Amino acid sequence: MIALLRGRVLDKQPNRVVVDVQGVGYEVYVPLSTYYDLGDEGTEAVLRVYTHVREEALQLYGFLTALEQQLFERLIAISGIGPKLAIAVLSGIDARDLVDAVRRGDVARLTRIPGVGRKTADRIVLELRDRLAQLAVPAGPEAPAVASAGDRLRDDLLSALQNLGYHRPLAEKAVDAALTSAPDPSFEQALKAALRELMR
What we know:
The protein has helices at 32-37, 66-76, 83-92, 95-104, 107-111, 118-128, 143-163, 168-181, 187-199, and strands at 4-13, 16-21, 24-29, 44-53, 58-63. It is of the alpha+beta class. It has three domains: 4-63, CATH 2.40.50.140; 66-131, 5' to 3' exonuclease, C-terminal subdomain (DNA polymerase, domain 1); 143-193. It has a five-stranded mixed beta barrel with strand order 1-2-3-5-4. Helix 7 crosses helix 8. The two termini are 29 Å apart.
């Protein structure tokens, strides 16, 4: 699976970019927030990538921030929301505003996003609210560095559990529980705690 791309922006459109990585052009679908913050054509870019595998296609979805990627992955885990709608949601509302709207249960704000009706907004609030505890939401100038360390630990734990054969949704629940139970665990401590959760 492709998890990260570092290369030159070859082509840039509002919903997709092409990144040239050593002569290979990767087409990556992006939310508008990533599109706006990405450099112009010809500049260097680093994108966090979610690889979506279907029977007839392999599609890449790219994000500049860990928060956007985490929200995307949580959105597509909701029944009835596919990658295209998840990208539309992230294009229609800032990632931090989405977190705030879900925590407040602000369905009206979510229905203002193109393509999101009342039922979908209700599902987003209902199913995302409990999954937001471990999201690292930048709140100030110093927050992103702290968030990135937490994100790296979470990503490393998920990768380790998936390599051990656990499905991602189960692994996510176990990792979230493990990180909640200990304030500042080492990788080994968190992995042991996550494995204990999976054995229950």
